[in-house]
Amino acid sequence: MACPYFMPVGKLESGNWTHPSRLPLGAGWTGHCTAPGHEQCVPSQDVLQEFCNLGYARNCGWAPAERAHDAVRFAVVAPPRDSRDESRTPVRNLRVAYVFENDNRPAGHGELEFDLSHASWIRRHEDPRIQKMAECFLDSYLKKKNCSARQT
Fold this sequence. Notes:
It contains two helices and six strands; from the N terminus they run ββαββββα. By secondary structure, the chain is of the alpha+beta class. The chain has one domain (6-144). Strands 3-4-5-6 form a four-stranded antiparallel sheet, covered by helices on one side. Strand 5 (105-115) and strand 6 (120-123) form a beta hairpin. The chain is globular.
């Protein structure tokens, strides 16, 4: 789960994760905090690794005491089909589910949708932080699956 106040901006290639591809966003990311009073603050490497990329907001001293959720997770719920399987029509759109947690309990959920053939979001999240995390997650997912979104 990633901290909901984290705004990822680039891949973190120098992280000390055993399996970076298993991270909530599919890789480690650098970025900045968006928590009230800490907007645009760049966390240290340790904080990025332990809290921003992997953590619950309640464990971070920068997160506000009152918040709607502590963490967010993502999953692809409509993966692309193997194009070699001619009995199926290839998937054109991917649905990316997100789930918010608060105090280790579900605190909301929804789906975003991405058009692979046009490399564009059909259904976006209204919170730019969550949308950016979804973009990072999807980028990592597509690289792992050796897929690409066609640029038009």
